[in-house]
Design goal:
The protein has 469 residues and is of the alpha/beta class. It contains 14 helices and 21 strands. The strands form 4 sheets. Strands 9, 11, 14, 15, 16, 17, 18, 19, 20 and 21 form a 10-stranded mixed sheet that branches. A 7-stranded antiparallel sheet has the order 1-7-4-5-6-3-2, with no helix packed on it. Strands 8-10 form a two-stranded antiparallel ribbon. Helix 10 crosses helix 11, helix 10 packs across helix 12 and helix 11 runs antiparallel to helix 12.
Length: 469
């Protein structure tokens, strides 16, 4: 361990130090101020005669007389199964007043890339209890499915609902999957103290904390710390999944704050910016996080990711949601209009998408009619939405009886299928049952995306029943 007192420049969260020997990239650094305070940092850029260090606790109080020690190792996360039920700060230190963590081992937070040959294709259903997701945009084990939201929208409420309700159902066919234990890794980046209190109150009230590990980086914590928080969370998730056999759900909120931290560091380094001032390497950086989701052949556990990001100005073409959409397997879109109507959760299923849905539903996973019901509802709701625009021009009286039924369908779909509140947990049977109730509003001949045998079993012709009565 070598110590230097050769700080040449301090810029934002960065400290520049002259060195007389090579220093490794990502190496952990201790900076001791003249007051004896120890700050931690990480080597961000290294040359033969100088290095750039990003400090996790800020640069306030650091001057040219401060001492810099290079520890000769990269940042590691102490991992153990005893982390379940614990609350940590954004740097992985306990803040819940519990006992010190005695780790089984310490793991590099960068992680190890999963060999593509060893990846197992995600195709097992995860039940979130939210109809708009389970019925229309199904989540499967090992998937990365982000939530696209906007400022002031209740994405945190939806995240908490998924965290406490998500279950891994046992296989109905008596397979070797016996419903392994399910754990939640919750990584919060740049959230307010009020949001943090809401998260913790909900976790403690519902008992979800017992099977969760919470990493909490607040808005007044150093921005640089946000760049390590998701890596600490994912390292913990990988340990629980691939060493301990858990099915792990990782919820990361808010990825926009993470990307803003990248932009702040890039500006301090005077890098040539990319789109809207964000670093040109932001796609690669996000991919390093998102691609840590998945399953490995021969391993029981899995890592499923739900990153949450708030789109600046509700712009889905903004670089953060744009790049996230390229990397991940779909998106769940929180809609401002539905939220203003009081729909909970306000998920707009039309622009939402789960690219792996078809592989996670069907006989033995959910139900044989799931795919057809989803397709038929999607088509009917899309037609109803188009007719709403037409009604604004010509009025409802100008529409045919068929068109009016599709308008009623769109209204009831939002009121009965999407609307369920944040405390209601629907299993897939209930979700599909509501779907069939809605489809029964439409004439039977309109159901062209559902198998005939499913129509015979589940379709109820209300008008015919009324006539018979």
């Amino acid at each position: 361990m070598k110590e230097y007192q050769t700080i040449t420049e301090i810029s934002g969260p960065l400290v520049f130090v002259e060195t007389d020997e090579p220093v490794g990239y990502d190496e952990i650094v201790e900076i001791e101020t003249t007051d004896g305070e120890i700050r931690r940092g990480q080597v961000l850029d290294s040359a033969s005669d100088h290095v750039a260090i990003q400090t996790f606790e800020g640069t306030g109080g650091i001057d040219r007389d401060s001492s810099v020690r290079f520890l000769g190792e990269t940042m590691k996360m102490p991992v153990t199964e005893d982390l379940l039920g614990r609350v940590l700060d954004g740097s992985g230190n306990p803040i819940d007043g519990g006992p010190d963590i005695v780790p089984d081992e310490r793991r590099d937070i960068v992680g190890e890339a999963i060999n593509p040959y060893s990846r197992e294709y995600p195709e097992e259903f995860i039940q979130t209890g939210v109809s708009a997701i389970d019925g229309m945009n199904t989540l499967v084990r090992g998937q990365k499915l982000p939530i696209f939201s906007g400022s002031g929208l209740p994405h945190n409420d939806l995240a908490l609902q998924i965290a406490r309700q998500a279950t891994v159902p046992e296989e109905e066919d008596g397979g070797d999957d016996d419903g392994s234990e399910f754990a939640v890794i919750f990584g919060a980046m740049g959230i307010t103290a009020e949001e943090a209190n809401e998260f913790m109150d909900d976790f403690e009230r519902t008992g979800a904390l017992e099977r969760s590990v919470v990493f909490m980086n607040l808005a007044d914590d150093p921005a640089v710390e946000r760049t390590v928080t998701p890596r600490l969370a994912l390292t913990t998730a990988e340990y629980l999944a691939f060493d301990k056999g858990y099915h792990v759900l990782v919820i990361l909120t808010d990825m926009t704050n993470y990307c803003e931290a990248l932009r702040e560091i890039g500006a301090a380094r005077e890098e040539v910016p990319g789109r809207r001032g964000y670093p040109g390497y932001m796609y690669t950086d996000l991919a390093q996080l998102y691609e840590r989701a998945g399953r490995i052949k021969g391993e029981e556990g899995s890592v499923t990711q739900i990153p949450i990001l708030t789109m600046p100005s509700d712009d889905i073409t903004h670089p953060i949601p744009d790049l996230t959409g390229y990397i991940t397997e779909g998106q769940i879109l929180i809609d401002r209009d539905l939220n203003s109507q009081g729909v909970e959760p306000p998920v707009n299923v039309l622009p939402s998408l789960s690219r792996l849905m078809d592989d996670g539903i069907g006989e033995g996973l959910t139900r044989g009619d799931h795919g057809g019901v989803s397709d038929q509802i999607y088509a009917a709701y899309a037609e109803g939405e188009d007719l709403r625009d037409l009604v604004n021009i010509v009025g409802r009286e100008a529409l045919s009886e068929r068109d009016n039924k599709y308008l009623d369908f769109a209204d009831r779909f939002e009121e009965e299928f999407v609307q369920q509140g944040y405390d209601t947990n629907r299993d897939i049977e209930e979700t599909l049952s509501i779907g069939w109730d809605l489809l029964s509003m439409l004439p039977r001949e309109e159901l062209n995306r559902v198998d005939e045998e499913n129509i015979e079993e589940y379709y109820t012709d209300d008008e015919a029943e009324t006539v018979e009565a």
